[in-house]
Design a protein that fits this description.
By secondary structure, the chain is of the alpha+beta class. The protein has two domains: about 70 residues, Alpha-Beta Plaits, CATH 3.30.70; about 60 residues, 2-Layer Sandwich (Alpha-Beta Plaits), CATH 3.30.70.260. It has four helices and six strands; from the N terminus they run βαββαβαββα.
């Protein structure tokens, strides 16, 4: 049975150069921030963006602010379920059937479970949470 919860993520700008992400995570480690999930990607030749889901969002935001990463807080949904063929497809269909357009999603399966973070327009978050039961 899937479980879903609304989470607070931090989105931050990142330099598109070697070591930029390592520097961010060194600072998070030094601040003793427990990161649950993270992803980052290049958005152009000179810019990149990162996302962090931490157990203590305020502590993570303070750390990112201190290193000049200019974090912004946004809501997303985290869903965890068993890793079975078609579970992710069923989740996405449920969201589509509710008329919700996802802006982004990341998913991974490991150890018999899968997890997904779902991004929608912030105005659609209440509807997404209601659809997923969070």
């Amino acid at each position: 049975m899937a479980t879903a919860k609304k989470i607070e993520l931090l989105t931050y700008k990142l330099q598109a150069k070697p070591g930029a992400l390592a520097n961010v995570f060194s600072a998070l480690r030094e601040a003793k921030v427990n990161v649950i999930a993270s992803w980052a990607y290049q958005m152009g030749p000179d810019q990149a963006q990162g996302h962090v889901y931490a157990t203590d969002p305020k502590k993570a935001k303070d750390c990112l602010t201190k290193i000049g990463a200019d974090p912004k807080t946004e809501s997303a949904c985290y869903v965890e379920d068993t890793d079975e063929i078609g579970r992710y497809a069923s989740l996405l269909k449920k969201i589509a059937d509710a008329g919700i357009n996802l802006e982004a999603t990341d998913a991974i399966a490991i150890g018999g479970k899968f997890g997904s973070i779902l991004f929608a327009n912030q105005n659609d978050m209440p509807k997404l949470c209601k659809t997923l039961g969070c």
